[in-house]
Design brief:
single chain, 392 residues, alpha/beta, Spore Coat Polysaccharide Biosynthesis Protein SpsA, Chain A
């Protein structure tokens, strides 16, 4: 099942009530044991602190009395039949009236008394405010696998890839200004929605702030699947970072292939022995595959830039400096070098009366250069084709 919301809601519509400052949006799937208390706590907190607000419960096709209880507690309930954490939030965001949106789960893991602190940060100029649970987790509130492996690893990967600087990228209590939703252009429908929001905010250079909050044991049964949802988060991070998924691995493979091939051709002793034909095959394979992966990475960057409104300063600089003709010349030059080496080997073979071919290593290297030249040549055309319908 696709994780993309193919018809994202238009958050830029006019608000129906300018008097609403905060909309507390709560996604809900079969939470009849908790939802009524969550709604009351949110409303009581806003009333006690003089915050003009509302509670929007996005009922995600619950099969119990969750929607009925939420409405009775004072929430405005909207129904989203498409299951998924992201689907519920997208529907809730579209229905929210407040200038600020505070997000929280319907399982009592978060303290709704924190709402005023989120509002303070937004009033001070923040555009996205994150809660940080990691130093204030109550006993039994988070499984050790999530606390010490899953969340630190995924947050670390996210920070390495996108330089967000957040400490707890998957905290479910956060707040944002409603007017930044069109910039975020959120689309995912599953649990990876949490990562998408942080990534998009970082790419848009929004003002992201965080402060520590407490995390309590949940009420009721958890809907989270550790490995499935963890993989979906990791997959989302990888596919939204072509540099780390394609360019870096491809460049490393290409470099290793060049080193191995040069070592074999130059008959350099490594580890006390001289490497020959089998090492040459391995080096050539690394070069060819490396170039192909780098080409895929460049095409992924181009697609993200031209069709998904991604912002990548490095790619923007590259496409400003290099054009189709540069790629064609590079591919042609590499391929030509391979052809010249191959032709020299054929001439030498001819002069020896078509006997045993003694230049196997150079022959493999020449064939590799020809293949790489062809890859570069046609990949350049593909990049140019992707740029034909670029967005202004």
């Amino acid at each position: 099942m696709s994780t993309l919301h193919h018809s994202p809601p238009r958050f830029a519509r006019e608000r129906d009530d300018d008097d609403v400052l905060v909309s507390v949006v709560i996604p809900c799937l079969n939470e009849e044991d908790n939802i009524e208390r969550c709604v009351r706590l949110a409303l009581e907190t806003m009333e006690a602190n003089g915050i003009r607000g509302e509670v929007v419960v996005a009922d995600n096709a619950s099969e119990d009395r969750s929607a009925e209880l939420a409405a009775a507690a004072g929430a405005r309930v909207i129904h989203e039949p498409r299951r998924g954490y992201g689907s519920a939030y997208l529907a809730g965001f579209n229905a929210a009236l407040g200038r600020y949106i505070v997000m929280a789960d319907a399982d009592l893991t978060y303290d709704f008394a924190e709402i005023p602190r989120f509002v303070e940060h937004l009033d001070a100029g923040a555009q996205l405010v994150m809660g940080d649970r990691m130093d204030n987790i109550h006993p039994g509130a988070m499984p050790w696998l999530h606390r010490y492996v899953g969340n630190p690893v995924l947050t670390g990967v996210l920070n390495v890839f996108f330089r967000t600087g957040v400490s707890d990228a998957h905290c479910g209590m956060r707040a944002l200004r409603r007017d930044i939703l069109p910039k975020l252009d959120l689309r995912t429908t599953g649990m990876e929605f949490a990562s998408e929001m942080v990534i998009r905010a970082s790419k848009e250079n929004l003002d992201i702030r965080e402060f520590p909050i407490e995390y309590h044991p949940r009420g009721g049964e958890s809907k989270l699947s550790s490995f499935r949802d963890g993989w979906r988060h990791l997959r989302f991070l990888l596919v939204h970072s072509p540099t780390h998924l394609f360019l870096l691995p491809g460049a490393i493979m290409l470099l290793l292939g060049l080193i191995v091939s040069a070592t074999v051709i130059a008959s350099i002793d490594v580890l006390g022995r001289e490497w020959d034909l089998h090492a040459m095959v391995a080096g050539s394979l690394l070069m060819i595959v490396g170039v192909q992966i780098v080409s895929l990475g460049l095409c992924a960057h181009a697609y993200g830039t031209y069709f998904m409104r991604e912002k990548d300063p490095w790619f923007d600089r590259m496409r400003a400096r290099f054009r189709l003709e540069h790629g064609l010349l590079l591919g042609g030059a590499v391929g030509l070098v391979g052809v010249v080496i191959a032709a020299a080997i054929v001439v030498q073979w001819f002069e020896r009366g078509f006997g045993a071919l003694s230049e196997e290593r150079l022959a493999i290297f020449a064939a590799s250069l020809i293949i790489i030249g062809i890859q570069i040549f046609f990949s350049s055309f593909l990049l140019s084709i992707l740029g034909l319908r670029r967005r202004s």
